[in-house]
Amino acid sequence: MASVWESIVGFLDEIGRNPAYLFLLLGLIFLLILGIVVHHIRKIRNQDIWVHQAWGSKWKGR
Q1: What is the pLDDT of residue 45?
Q2: How far apart are CA 11 and CA 7, in angstroms?
Q3: What is the pTM of this model?
Q4: Helix (H, G, I), strand (E, B), or coil: what is residue 14?
Q5: E strand or H helix that includes residue 1
Q6: Which of 9, 14, 19, 56 fits a 20 to 30 Å CA distance from 3?
Q7: Handedness of CA 46, 48, 51, 57 (dihedral sign)
């Protein structure tokens, strides 16, 4: 358990020393968030449009 904690502390210490690692980590987080958003948008666009019954008679598919 101590080796895991030491690894985390070493990783954070290395990020603090070299700003390139910080930008790389932030870029990775940004790409992950962007990928999740794109996946969610594509999932929503593939769903059928739901129209309330009271509005169905006035809805012409537009």
Answers
A1: 76
A2: 6
A3: 0.57
A4: helix
A5: none
A6: 19
A7: positive
